[in-house]
Amino acid sequence: QDENRAFLESRYRLPIPALQLGQALVGCANACLDISDGLLADVGHICTQSHVGITIYKNKIPLSGAGREAVENYPEFWKCVYGGGDDYELLFTIPPEMKEDVLRISRETQISVTQIGEVTAGSHPELLDDKGQKIGDIQAGWVHF
Question: What is the pTM of this model?
Fold first, then answer.
């Protein structure tokens, strides 16, 4: 557990931005930003700017082994996954026809990508649990103003 804690602290203190992936997504992604304000807050930024809704599936959010163990032992830590920031992982949307291109880019850059949701009609993010039920009352992340 000390090893997992050290890993998570290191990822927080010294994030590794996926610059190569971000540069390669030019021409593929409709929207792209880093998760610095928190997953749901940054999904919300895309929703607001693009006038869309986005559904995020909890069970598709990728976690490290240490992160997975943390939320299994302390389920309340899921709030950190949804609302915590400073991850600097990339969050992006693509048209469906670009999926193979993005998978190729992922292989070439050796940076894994995971589809965690889908763009929908609407104007805000929605988070669904493992049973497809909406999760409410969660911290949305950092608010600048």
Answer: 0.90
